[in-house]
Automatic annotation (TrEMBL):
<protein>
    <submittedName>
        <fullName>Ribonuclease H</fullName>
    </submittedName>
</protein>
<dbReference type="InterPro" id="IPR036397">
    <property type="entry name" value="RNaseH_sf"/>
</dbReference>
<dbReference type="GO" id="GO:0003676">
    <property type="term" value="F:nucleic acid binding"/>
</dbReference>
<dbReference type="InterPro" id="IPR049863">
    <property type="entry name" value="RnhA-like_halobact"/>
</dbReference>
<dbReference type="GO" id="GO:0004523">
    <property type="term" value="F:RNA-DNA hybrid ribonuclease activity"/>
</dbReference>
<dbReference type="Pfam" id="PF13456">
    <property type="entry name" value="RVT_3"/>
</dbReference>
<feature type="domain" description="RNase H type-1">
    <location>
        <begin position="65"/>
        <end position="195"/>
    </location>
</feature>
<dbReference type="InterPro" id="IPR012337">
    <property type="entry name" value="RNaseH-like_sf"/>
</dbReference>
<dbReference type="InterPro" id="IPR002156">
    <property type="entry name" value="RNaseH_domain"/>
</dbReference>
Length: 197
């Protein structure tokens, strides 16, 4: 069971700001209890103990802000343009910290890739990471965002600017193109969102 040495009042405030419901403890020794996803937390005088199938659901909020994360993103479009979806995952030494997917309507594959990147970076910033290593299987998006390739399409150019603004908010970042096998979780999430429609 992971234990976070912290001020329980500060930890409670962080949880409530993240939208997590915090309840009274079950014993005289417990300050409070909280649940999110597959994790639960119990606060004592100088620490919070986290348990459950996926402790990362709460650890990222409870731990002091900062640190480094690997961010994976993928967009998918069936038809180009056609029905589209995005998928992303944030991974640390604690495992998958957060992941998500959603349908984004009708658009091109490249626009879906950008939307996935923007969503993943926004979530990583909300989680408080100050260093990110970003990985995606779209060479076009990676090279455009890094400034190696021109972005002629106005819609993509606007998304590239947004992605660069989000990246600039981190103390350190890297953006690399990886094979689809390395990006399989984000790829699966995007395709599952399309399949579920």
């Amino acid at each position: 069971m992971p234990t976070v040495e912290c001020d329980p009042d500060d930890a409670r405030r962080r949880l409530e700001e993240a939208g997590v419901s915090v309840k009274s403890g079950n014993t005289e020794y417990e300050r409070w209890r909280a649940e999110r996803g597959d994790a639960s937390a119990v606060a004592y005088d100088d620490k919070v103990v986290v348990q459950g199938a996926n402790p990362a659901d709460l650890l990222t909020i409870l731990q002091p802000k900062g640190g480094r994360a690997h961010v994976y993103f993928d967009g998918a479009s069936r038809g180009n343009p056609g029905p589209a979806a995005i998928g992303w995952a944030i991974v640390t030494s604690n495992g998958i910290v957060a992941e998500g997917s959603k349908r984004i309507g009708e658009t091109t594959n490249n626009r879906a890739e950008y939307e996935a990147l923007i969503e993943a970076l926004s979530v990583a910033k909300d989680y408080g990471y100050d260093e990110v290593d970003v990985r995606g299987d779209s060479q076009l998006i990676v090279k455009q965002v890094r400034g190696e390739w021109k972005t002629n399409d106005p819609g993509l150019r606007e998304r590239r600017v947004k992605a660069n603004e989000l990246l600039a908010a981190f103390d350190r970042w890297s953006l690399e193109h990886v094979p689809r096998e390395i990006n399989d979780r984000a790829d699966s999430l995007a395709n599952e969102a399309l399949d579920d429609a």
